[in-house]
Design goal:
Elements lengths: L2 H15 L33 E7 L4 H5 L10 E6 L2 E6 L1 E3 L11 H8 L20 E3 L5 H9 L1 E7 L6 H10 L3 E3 L4 E7 L14 E4 L5 E6 L10 H7 L4 E4 L16 H4 L3 H4 L1 E2 L4 H7 L6 E4 L16 H13 L7 E7 L23 E6 L7 E3 L3 E2 H11 L47 H6 L11
Parallel strand pairs: 1-13, 1-14, 4-5, 6-16, 6-17, 11-12, 11-13
Antiparallel strand pairs: 2-3, 6-15, 7-8, 8-9, 9-10, 14-15
Helix pairs in contact: 5-11, 9-10
């Protein structure tokens, strides 16, 4: 690297790591909306929010990171099954370095859920054990607790669908993954070939589920989807800029959903809006170069992935938040931080049953903005479609179902979902940013070698 580039990186790292250190009310359910979808009316958010940043981490239930958080639905005792009986199990403390990687494919989620009893978690990982009944040591996730204390912790965020990362990431950008009308099928788990994308070998097929929640293995279409719209079409058609930050652009697997969307993979967005390496977001945020909508995904070691034996995830996220917060676009930005699936860990919250896909098992979610409510635990039922709905409101966009060629069978969820706007107080002045303290400074992420490992394979 040229000396000038190294100097620039060094200066950026110094700026970003300043302040680093080593160291229940009922939920509101979404209302049904008729299939005749019209563009979302102008919202208050559009007067204040000009940038939305979605940070996506890996495989955690809400209880696994926030058990015992004051005011949250996060007990430290759960339910399981032993010797055929339903029993109470006290959650134990784990660390990133020693925790197991639990089973978290679609069948595991259905068993864990157990028709809403939330007591099937004893079956997976270390069979018959309490491995899933764990929370991460508070000191290791302190940055996340600090963010919650300053901003909003949403304790009822649910994925669109039961199952793992593959469908989670698709529904984060599309609000649906229905791929066939008659019979009605949605995607599940992953494909039978490499990459799970438009770059998969010819003849690759996908797993699907039917309306009875039966999984059909490798019966679905080639993973280069045209069956549904994504937010990319909506943003492009309305002149809204976007970027998707990823460690690996091609062959990123299940963590790069736009590689499986033909409109993006075979179109100009692939060269223009897919950004590698993911650490470029730190430079873009610090220099005021954020797109209007950004998704930020990590590399393997920084992802919070169970079994990776790495404690760097909270610091990676803190580096992004600090870069945005100290950058010139802070006063017009909303950050949504969430985890893509539950990772097999125990969670007590019963997901609302909104359609045959889900909702899936609860995940943590933090909402960070100069206009976010302070030290607030949101009890509103959110789903991944809630993020899409908030983007649509912030930029005065039509819903995905209102785009040309849309049909009701495609099952878009952005219309039914509650928006995130109740987590904001736009009557308050923009708050001055206070840095999040974390173990690893931004300089670590800016200078570390790339892992070249898939973030996840499930």
């Amino acid at each position: 690297m040229a000396a000038k580039s190294l100097a620039a990186l060094s200066a950026l790292a110094v700026a970003l790591c300043a302040g680093c250190a080593s160291g229940s009310s009922s939920s509101a359910l979404p209302q049904a909306i008729a299939p005749g979808i019209s563009p979302i009316e102008r919202s208050v958010a559009s007067n204040y929010i000009q940038h939305v940043v979605i940070i996506v981490q890996e495989n955690r239930s809400f209880d696994n990171f926030f058990a015992g958080y004051p005011g949250a639905d996060a007990p430290t005792v759960g339910w399981g099954k032993k010797a055929g009986k339903r029993v109470k199990i006290t959650l134990h403390q784990d660390t990133f370095e020693v925790e197991p990687n639990l089973e978290h494919l679609y069948p595991a989620s259905i068993i864990d859920w157990d028709n809403g009893k939330m007591d099937g978690f004893t079956k997976w990982g270390m069979k018959g054990s309490d491995a899933a009944y764990a929370y991460i040591e508070r000191s290791q996730v302190q940055p996340y607790w600090d963010m919650a204390g300053q901003y909003v912790l949403a304790d009822h965020m649910f994925p669109t669908e039961f199952g793992p990362s593959w469908t989670a990431h698709i529904t984060l950008v599309a609000g649906t993954d229905n791929v066939q009308q008659n019979p009605l099928w949605a995607l599940a788990d992953f494909s039978d070939g490499a990459y799970n994308s438009c770059d998969s070998p010819r003849g690759t097929m996908t797993d699907v589920i039917d309306t009875k929640r039966k999984e059909l293995y490798f019966a679905g279409p080639y993973p280069c989807f045209t069956q549904f719209n994504t937010i990319a079409q909506d943003l492009d058609q309305n002149g809204i800029s976007w970027k998707y930050y990823v460690d690996v652009i091609k062959h990123a697997g299940i963590w790069s959903p736009f590689e499986a969307i033909k409109y993006v993979r075979r179109g100009p967005d692939w060269q223009k809006d897919m950004v590698q390496p993911e650490t470029q977001v730190l430079t873009d945020a610090q220099n005021g170069n954020l797109a209007q909508v950004s998704w930020v995904t990590p590399n393997h070691d920084d992802s919070d992935h169970p079994g990776s034996h790495s404690d760097k995830g909270p610091s990676w996220v803190s580096s992004i938040v600090n870069a945005v917060g100290s950058g010139p676009q802070w006063n017009s930005t909303a950050i949504v931080l969430l985890w893509d699936d539950w990772g097999g860990f125990y969670d007590n919250a019963r997901p609302p049953k909104l359609d045959f896909r889900g909702l899936g098992i609860r995940v943590p979610c933090l909402i960070i903005s100069p206009y976010a409510k302070t030290n607030y635990v949101s009890k509103t039922t959110y789903e991944f479609g809630s993020i899409l709905k908030f983007i649509e409101e912030a930029f005065n966009l039509p819903s995905l179902g209102a785009l040309s060629g849309s049909s009701s069978w495609q099952g878009y969820t952005d219309t039914r979902a509650n928006s995130l706007d109740d987590s904001f107080n736009f009557s308050q002045p923009a708050r001055k940013f206070k840095r999040i303290r974390a173990k690893y400074p931004a300089s670590y992420f800016l200078t570390m070698p790339r892992s070249n490992l898939p973030v996840d394979t499930e």
